[in-house]
Amino acid sequence: MRSLLRGPATRLYETLLEWELSGTPDHIAVIQDGNRRYARKQGAETTDGHREGAETTEAVLDWCAQLDIEELTLYAFSTENFNRPPEEREALFDLLEEKLREFADADRVHESGVRIRAIGEIDRLPERVQDAVAYADRRTRSYDQFHLNVALAYGGRAELLGAASDIARDVRDGEIDPAAVDVETIENRLYDGPTRDVDLIIRTGGDERTSNFLPWHANGNEAAVYFCAPYWPEFRKVDLLRAIRTYESRAQSWRKTRVQRALALVRAIESERGDGGRILRRLRDRLPREQADALCEQADIERPAD
Questions:
Q1: 207 is in an annotated binding site
Q2: Of 13, 150, 238, 281, whose CB neighbour count within 10 A is largest?
Q3: 209 annotated binding-site participant
């Protein structure tokens, strides 16, 4: 069914979008929303929506490989999902167990060097799901070509609170000097999973919120966010490419703003002290060469020699 919907016009649009992209983010995180609403729209059981969503997940893994994306984090089961009806939870747990083992044994996972890890309060999950998590970890532990993080029983606030509690305990016990607490101290106490900050967060299903997902790894407000209407089972490669285009536009805007701020600084100093050249030498070490050249040209100051 999915392949029938991908007609010549869609393939042409995909090609155009790929041609327009100058690069891709290293790490994408996805909130896979809308499986249940998709099932209701189709007049199907909730479990059918989750199963079709799992097919989308497999397709996204293929698209990431095609686009040279290095890390993908999927919000598969949040701490709030424990509030769902017992029969729905059990069906989700069955599907998670099945797919974790299936991915861990898949030839393409081993051929592509995919490292699979779960992040979250794994001990809250049924034993059969915990066993599947451990199995996937063992089977892929030696790989590092691509990182697939599956957020299970995950909540961003709980993660940060756990890290803060651990640090407070170590400070109380005299194992850490409070003045020595830094970014690395916190990161060492977060769930073992993401290897880098998130560049792009995608949420399907129409809601425009990030739902307590990876607040630390989203690096403040530096991660681009793309909200789209399709439910997760309807998500297509075109949607992924549009999201990446949004990420690129945001990155370009950020770089432009950075140059403009630096330019204002250089002009002010040149006006007051005639010292713009010296400031540019310092900026040159912090900005890409093309940005430093643009600064010199716009400020009408001769670029300092290398």
A1: no
A2: 150
A3: yes
Q: Is the entire prediction scored with pTM above 0.70?
A: yes
- At residue 74, what is the residue type? L
Amino acid type, 140: T
Q: Are residues 240 and 63 in contact, defined by beta-carbon separation less than 8 angstroms?
A: yes
Q: What is the pLDDT along the chain (306 residues), one digit of tens a residue?
A: 454 455 777 777 788 787 778 888 999 999 999 999 999 999 999 999 999 999 999 999 999 999 999 999 999 999 999 999 999 999 999 999 999 999 999 999 999 999 999 999 999 999 999 999 999 999 999 999 999 999 999 999 999 999 999 999 999 999 999 999 998 999 999 998 888 899 999 999 999 999 889 999 986 557 899 999 999 999 999 999 999 998 988 665 445 445 555 555 555 555 555 555 565 556 555 556 666 666 556 555 555 555
**Is 36 annotated to bind ligand?**
yes
Which residues have a catalytic role annotated? 33, 81
- Compute φ and ψ for 46, nearest 5 degrees: -55, -40
Question: Where among 184, 200, 235 does a domain terminate?
Answer: 235
Does residue 214 share a domain with residue 96? yes
Count the residues in the chain: 306
**Shared domain check, 189 and 65:** yes
The verdict on 267 and 189 lying in the same domain is no
Is 103 within any annotated ligand binding site?
no
The continuous run of DSSP H or E covering 152 comes out as strand 146-154
Is there a domain that residue 18 lies in? no
C-alpha 267/C-alpha 275 separation (Å) is: 9
One-letter identity of residue 18: E
Cα 298 to Cα 253, 290, 292, 295, distances in angstroms: 17, 12, 10, 5
**Cβ count near 229 (within 10 Å):** 11
Give the number of domains in the chain: 2
Task: Report whether 79 belongs to an annotated binding site.
Answer: yes
| Contact status, residue 64 vs residue 51, Cβ threshold 8 Å | no
